[in-house]
Amino acid sequence: MKTKPSFFLKHKVIVVMPAYNAEKTLEKTYNDIPKDVVDEVIVVDDDSRDKTVITAKRLNLKVIVHKKNLGYGGNQKTCYREALNLGAEIIVMIHPDYQYDAKLTGELIKPIKDNRVDIMLGSRIRSRAEALKGGMPLYKYISNRFLTVVENIILGLNLSEYHTGFRAYRRNVLETLPLNAFSDDFVFDQEILISAHAKGFKMGEIAVPVRYFPEASSINFIRSLRYGLQIIYTLVLYLLHNLGLKINIFN
């Protein structure tokens, strides 16, 4: 993807896509990204077993390939490090599984560009009926709702979803947080949000349609259970941090 001259945009916006076996959905996701609001797209491949890398190179995207699988969180660490090195002022993370509507990237980043928030989330939970109609498994919907309620109560926020793979960050958020202290597993997504909240960064959200289908990435029930327990543990660490204990992910 060609980079537009900097005078066309007030902020340099880079989209990062942490990819693993995304050959069937990467191109569709990329095609939906509004090119008039994005400067560059980076794909970080986490040792995929399919043709994800070939597809990304065919699309002329910047591609970074892990020689071994580092995990979902490990993949994102590479994504953000590379985007920061390229001078991004706003970093948008989009799962390349076509589950999220990338056409809404402009709407997602607008509150950040307007200096109203530091982090924006694309929530799939506009309504229960819509989420389930979009294919979200019932057990995922129930666990999503339960964990979101718990997080809202403990963090004192009122977000509709914390578990989205479509989100945007202001540069200084990623520069401030101790990314290397976070997990390389799926709970990375929650550690980064809880740590950001602990440091006083502001979060907002927009609603995005949900799309579940066989090619969309998903974790099984056992991994989902482990993910939920890791979130609860992270929230306990947050409470201990508020009591004055030194916790590495909040330093």
UniProtKB/TrEMBL annotation:
It comes from the Bacteria. GO terms for molecular function: transferase activity. Keywords: Transferase. The keyword Protein transport does not apply. Residues 15-176 form the Glycosyltransferase 2-like domain. Pfam families: Glycos_transf_2 (PF00535). This is Glycosyl transferase family 2. It comes from Candidatus Gottesmanbacteria bacterium RIFCSPLOWO2_01_FULL_39_12b.
